[in-house]
């Protein structure tokens, strides 16, 4: 009764097979590198609007020296001939695209779906309520070109 059949696996062999089956697959480094490269190209057709001024700090982003905080925080993003001005109030973002070439704006925040924002004929928009955490704006012109701002934390 206590005999084992030759084809019956030992408990350790069976546990090793189960562990192997449950272990996550190992992805080769070259495949991971290719995936990262594809991800970085997702906005290659978009013009990056870099932060050129933030009233919460210096006029040079990343300078590391803070001045006095303004009552209304203002952010200025530049992309070639287009400027995106954003004012931060306690409960909303108000902004304007100059010149008013943008026909659509989306608010992107970390961990959430993009939110469409109404833009008027002067390029003015309001985001209410104020986004929590980091955000960026994706602006689309009448010609379909995209302008993407840097990520900014509030």
How do the helices and strands line up, and which of them pair or pack?
Elements: H1 11-22, H2 29-40, E1 46-54, E2 73-79, E3 82-88, E4 93-98, E5 102-109, E6 115-117, E7 124-127, E8 134-141, E9 146-149, E10 152-153
Parallel strand pairs: 1-9
Antiparallel strand pairs: 1-2, 2-3, 3-4, 4-7, 5-6, 5-8, 8-9, 8-10
Short descriptors:
154 residues, alpha+beta, 2 domains, ten-stranded mixed β-sheet, 2 helices, Immunoglobulin-like
Task: Provide a short characterization of the protein structure.
With 154 residues, the chain is of the alpha+beta class. It is 16% helix and 38% strand. The chain has two domains: 30 residues, no CATH class; 109 residues, Sandwich (Immunoglobulin-like).
In terms of quaternary structure, the protein is single chain
Taking pLDDT < 50 over at least 5 consecutive residues as the criterion, the unreliable ranges are 59-65
Number of domains: 2
State the shape.
Answer: elongated
Give the tally of β-strands.
10
Largest sheet: 10 strands, mixed
Question: DSSP strand (E) fraction?
Answer: 35-45%
* Helical run tally: 2
The name CATH uses for the topology of the largest domain is Immunoglobulin-like
CATH superfamily of the largest domain: Expansin, cellulose-binding-like domain
Overall pLDDT confidence: 81
Helix percent band: 10-25%
Distance from N terminus to C terminus (CA atoms, Å) equals 73 Å
Q: Under the CATH scheme, which class of the largest domain?
A: Mainly Beta
Per CATH, the architecture of the largest domain is Sandwich
Over the alpha carbons, how many angstroms does the gyration radius reach? 26 Å
From the helix content, strand content and strand pairing, which structural class follows? alpha+beta
Written as H for each helix and E for each strand, in order along the chain, the element string is: HHEEEEEEEEEE
């Amino acid at each position: 009764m206590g005999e084992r059949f030759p084809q019956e696996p030992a408990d350790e062999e069976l546990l090793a097979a189960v562990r192997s089956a449950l272990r996550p697959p190992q992805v080769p480094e070259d495949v991971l590198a290719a995936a990262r490269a594809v991800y970085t190209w997702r906005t290659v057709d978009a013009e990056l609007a870099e932060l050129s001024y933030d009233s919460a700090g210096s006029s040079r982003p990343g300078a590391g020296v803070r001045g006095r905080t303004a009552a209304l925080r203002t952010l200025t993003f530049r992309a070639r001939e287009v400027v995106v001005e954003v004012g931060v109030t306690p409960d909303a973002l108000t902004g304007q695209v100059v010149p008013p070439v943008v026909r659509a704006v989306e608010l992107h925040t970390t961990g959430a779906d993009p939110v469409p924002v109404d833009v008027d004929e002067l390029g003015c928009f309001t985001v209410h309520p104020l986004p929590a955490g980091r955000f960026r704006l994706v602006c689309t012109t009448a010609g379909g070109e995209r302008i993407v701002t840097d990520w900014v934390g509030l």
